[in-house]
Amino acid sequence: MLRLSKKADYALIAMKHLALRRDGSSSAREIAGLYDIPIELLAKILQRLVRRGLLLSQQGTRGGYQLARVPSLISVADVIQAIDGPVTVTACSSSEGTHCEQFAKCNVRDPLWRVRERILSALGECTIAELAADPPPTDPAEHRAVLHTHI
Predict the structure, then answer these.
(1) Element holding 147 (H helix, E strand)
(2) First CA to last CA across the chain, in angstroms?
(3) What is the pLDDT of residue 30?
(4) Domain 6-135 class?
(5) Better-predicted residue by pLDDT, 69 or 151
(6) What is the DSSP letter of 77?
(7) Which residues lie across from 88 on neighbouring strands?
(8) Distance (Å, rounded) from C-alpha 78 to C-alpha 132?
(9) Which of 36-40, 85-89, 96-100, 145-149 has the least mean pLDDT?
(10) Which of 10, 26, 65, 91 suits 113 as a labelling partner, its CA being 20 to 30 A distant?
(11) Residue in 43, 45, 41, 42 with CA at minimum distance from that of residue 54
C-alpha cells in the first residue's frame, strides 16, 4: 500500500498552514496546537524542512517559520522527499535495491519503476499553492464522504 508517513503528512499540514498565513509566519507551537500534532515531533519536522531549504526560521519573540519560496514553487514531492527520503514503490527502487535477491530476474522491476516515475511526476506537479487552494473540510465525516466519492 502506498501511503505517506505521518511525518510527511504533518509536514504538508504545516506547509499548507504557512501558505495560508497572511503574515507568512507561524511558530511550531501554534501549528502544533491548531492541528493536534505533538510539538516535539513537529519541531523536528520543521527543522528538517529548514535544512532542506523549504522553510526559513527566525529566532526570538517574533520568530517562527515561513516558506522559503512562494507556495507555487514548492512541490508536494519536495516536502515528502525532504522528510522521508526518496519515494519508492518496491525494494529495488531504493538505494539498497540491487541487494534484492530477485533483482536480476525480476520481471516487474522496469514496469514498477515506470509506476514510480509517474507517482513522482504527479507529486512534483502538485504544489503547496494547490493544497492551500482547497478549503479544509468542516467535518471529518464530510471529508470521508468526499474521499469515497472520488475513489
Answers:
(1) helix 140-150
(2) 15
(3) 95
(4) mainly alpha
(5) 69
(6) H
(7) none
(8) 16
(9) 145-149
(10) 10
(11) 45
DSSP state string for the chain: -----HHHHHHHHHHHHHHH-SSS-B-HHHHHHHHT--HHHHHHHHHHHHHTTSEEEE-STT-EEEESS-GGG-BHHHHHHHHH-S--SSGGGSTTGGG-TTTTT-SSHHHHHHHHHHHHHHHHH-BHHHHHHSPPPSSHHHHHHHHHHH-
pLDDT given at position 126: 96
- How far out from the chain centre does Cα 118 lie? 17
The 10s digit of each residue's pLDDT in 62-116 is 789 999 999 999 999 999 999 999 888 877 766 555 567 877 888 888 888 899 9
Is residue 39 very low, low, confident or very high in pLDDT (cuts 50, 70, 90)?
A: very high
Q: Domain spans of the chain? A: 6-135
Instruction: Give the position of cell 515561513.
Output: 66
- CA-based nearest residue to 13, from 60, 57, 65: 65
